[in-house]
Amino acid sequence: EGMALAQRILFPPEEICMDWQQRQRPGAGLCNRGSTCYINVILQCLTYTPPLANYLLSRDHSQLCHQQGFCMMCIMEAHVRKVLRSSANVIWPRAVVKDLKFIGEEFEPDMAGDAYEFLRCALEAMQRACLSGSSDEDISSQTTTIVHQIFGGFLKSRVTCLRCQAVSVSYKAFLHVLLDIKVRGLAVVLQNIPKP
User: Fold this and answer.
1) Same domain membership, residue 145 and residue 179
2) For 108-134, what is each residue's pLDDT tens digit?
3) Same domain for 132 and 107?
4) How far apart are alpha carbons 81 and 84 in whole angstroms?
5) Domain limits at 28?
């Protein structure tokens, strides 16, 4: 209803494995050098997202990637492999930190940043990498990348005309949604903390 079918499927949804394909031991932790904790927390979340990690560990992207220079999917592939296959207890995500300016212009290695903003920019950079060479794809086809199928969704808008009662339905693809969540009772919990 109101949503165009994709002209081409960029990644078949039946190939997405939601569970770990191989048993994974906890990988290496990430070293915080300076103000990189916001980067580390998002990298850890992405690394331990099974459908993304399975895809990155398969090396399917890098085997077909023809992108010159920066490619967020190739960087994430190398990062996930390093974290999950390393015998070290801690590693530094040097490749990600080195290429911060390509992930988001507002990020600098020596300045603190916002984790949500880094996630937003990282997902968009991964989506661009999946679409590299496919920029002429229709909008519906662009939502069939592995990144969009794992992290994305659609906002459905339904508008009814007050005069003629005609209904208009539209969809907008997203990779991230900022939700305002109000927690009731939090003030009570904080008030009950014993004072030293």
Assistant:
1) no
2) 877 888 899 999 999 999 999 999 866
3) yes
4) 5
5) 13-151
